[in-house]
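Let's practice the habit of predicting before peeking. Look at the sequence and jot down your guess about where helices and strands might fall. Then scroll down.
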Amino acid sequence: MREEWQEGSVPLRILKESGYKINVYSSSDLTYFNMDQLLFGKNRVLIDQMEDFSQIRFIEPYERDFRVVETLLKDLESPARRTGHVFIVFFDATHSEYSVPPNDPPIFQPALKEIDYLTLTPTNIEPLKNRYRNAIFYIDSLMGKFFRALNERKLYADSIIAITGDHGEEFFEDGALFHGTHLNHYQTSVPIFCKFQKNPWVLQSQSATHIDLFPTIIHHLTGRLDFEHLFDGQSLFAPNRWPYRLAVLQNGPKTPAEFSIAKEGEFFQFRFPDIRHIYQTKELEILQASIPPDEAPDLLKPLLHRE
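Done guessing? Here is the structure:
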């Protein structure tokens, strides 16, 4: 079905049709899993300006991230860019090899200078975790530079800003390494930072998922909730929000077969036994349940009690 999406993601189309120009700055490769086509449409039709540093292979991810921020800040010097623009940034330093400037003293020590995946064990993992922490610290420093520039140019107060990551990382806490293997706290819990313009609106939840971000932003910009039928997520300002968070386990190019539903104090994990018939079957295998089925909310009991 996704291959049929020719016009890009619904939220970006709404913003585009509302008169916003879409500016994209990327250090990471957006062709991965055809992400650029899914987000921005065939031939990236939704993008007004594209600054793609991902193909500069002779420099490391940390340097590409630096160039992304420098280019964005230079563009923001133009008065014409200060209103009516959406800026979307993709960083890469915290992914995979955890890229850090080699000449900067590491904040977290000891830290690996190179990663030998064949020698990693739960007993020697801390230097790798420190390398990861140092990459996060580096991205944090770039974000600090970005925030300071916004404040200096009197742009911060009137900006809507959302920052998140696509996944967490596991370092053998539950027996796995990195990500894409388990639906646990280490791999699925990511920071979601949202900053909105001043207004009397009150967030209805302190927890969210990625699919809530654009419904929240569009609700804030337009004051309207009649777009919600177009989204899987909900605005964080909406009353009577569905209280659960949904996560689906990546299964490479195959149909995802494992998912979890969670809220504070409750966690349920399920799997479709036969992924070939996932759209026809009602059969689910219960992998984990934090509370007995009889104590589950009525909404989830049909999943926990199978005939």
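How did you do? The mean pLDDT is 89.
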